[in-house]
Amino acid sequence: MEIGVLGTGAVGAAIGAKLAQLGHQVKMGSRDAGNVKATAWAAQAGANASVGTFSDAAAFGKILFNCTSGQGALSALNLAGSANLKGKLLIDVSNPLDFSKGMPPTLTVCNTDSLGEQIQRSYPEAKVVKTLNTVNAFLMVEPSKLAGDHSMFLCGNDEGAKGQAREILTSWFGWKDVIDLGDITNARGTEMILPLWVRLYGHFKSPNFNFQIVR
Amino acid sequence: MEIGVLGTGAVGAAIGAKLAQLGHQVKMGSRDAGNVKATAWAAQAGANASVGTFSDAAAFGKILFNCTSGQGALSALNLAGSANLKGKLLIDVSNPLDFSKGMPPTLTVCNTDSLGEQIQRSYPEAKVVKTLNTVNAFLMVEPSKLAGDHSMFLCGNDEGAKGQAREILTSWFGWKDVIDLGDITNARGTEMILPLWVRLYGHFKSPNFNFQIVR
């Protein structure tokens, strides 16, 4: 399948590489079609990988992953263009983290709203599913790196899109415990565990951990 | 040991009953010394249990548990009196949840501050340790109700008080995986997972779950 990955950071690179390895055609989008990180990623990811602008990647993909930094997400999607998002599953992996005021980071939106909701409101014809934002990039696409069971959350307003996202998580990436929290307002909850995630990262001195919901 | 439990809700009742059952002298404090819920609790909890005002309970306890609702915490501690909190371990179990605007609840403080920090700032001579606020009352004192490993967080500024709190969690209540996140600013992180907790409660239709940090 053709898939557009928006963002050239560790998250975009890990997800894009995994998708290309699974045999999908992946275009990584960025602000600048000649982005050095995207070009380096494509050279490593092989024949299934290509690069372009946010708009190129969004037009190319039948499914889209928003892997931009939280603070760049809305402007990146604006460059991607609403016509290119329309009717598509848009998996939103971004977190509204603000590191500009030092550590620990704060969230630019939380409690009564979330970045996932802002994106869905801005692009009502996209089918936003918030997921994968609660783990490190490497765990996202290879949950078996951690021994034992651990959980992945998803939420969104479109049941069909959530089913498609669940299939990607389970069949493509190998997640076993995927918890559908409900509509996109649940993005508040999953984005708001990031402050704890960041502290746990500091505590363990490793990002190789995840939450399991024991029940 | 003499222990003061502030608050007559499900959390205060469960913690107070467990402590009395372990042989400690427990005084449950409330706004009104003749509080009906406190009196009913004491009748059930047996000879080790007594009731009084917030001030009575705080004066009585060598260790204190703040089990008030988040929105009532600071006024309850004000009634308890700073002289009665001075130098004592104050285990803060409260969460700044606001249900007044309907479901899902929001937090009255988050992101750049927390209730745990507000309490520590208000009573600098108390040794505030934030813990137990991320699970249901019954799990707090009986973590073995859930099969398998699961985690409890603690944070605070005083190392001695955290050691004492850890001993209560492990030796008295039976917690096995207790994670010390660091200073009291980490209360932001643990309080901010409550929105997800509330959604998971709705999803599972049971409060009998917890987060395990798989690593």
Which structural category fits the helices and strands of chain A? alpha/beta
Subunit arrangement of the protein: homodimer
Beta strands of chain A, count: 11
How much is the radius of gyration of chain A in Å? Answer: 16 Å
Helix proportion of chain A: 25-40%
Structural description of this entry:
The structure is a homodimer. Chain A has a single domain (about 1-205), classed as 3-Layer(aba) Sandwich (Rossmann fold). In chain A, α2 (about 35-45) links the parallel β2 (about 25-30) and β3. An eight-stranded mixed beta sheet of chain A has the order 3-2-1-4-5-8-9-10, with helices on both faces. In chain A, strands 6-7 form a two-stranded antiparallel sheet. The radius of gyration of chain A is 16 Å and the shape is globular. In chain A, α1 packs parallel to α2 and α3 packs across α4. The model of chain A has no long low-confidence stretch (mean pLDDT about 95). The first copy, chain A, has helices spanning about 10-20, 35-45, 55-60, 75-80, 80-85, 115-120, 135-140, 160-170, 185-190, 195-205; strands at about 1-5, 25-30, 50-55, 65, 90, 95-100, 105, 125-130, 150-155, 175-180, 210-215. Chain A is α/β, with parallel strands linked by helices and about 220 residues long. The longest helix of chain A has 14 residues, at about 160-170. At the A-B interface, β7, β10, α9, α10 and β11 of A face β7, β10, α9, α10 and β11 of B.
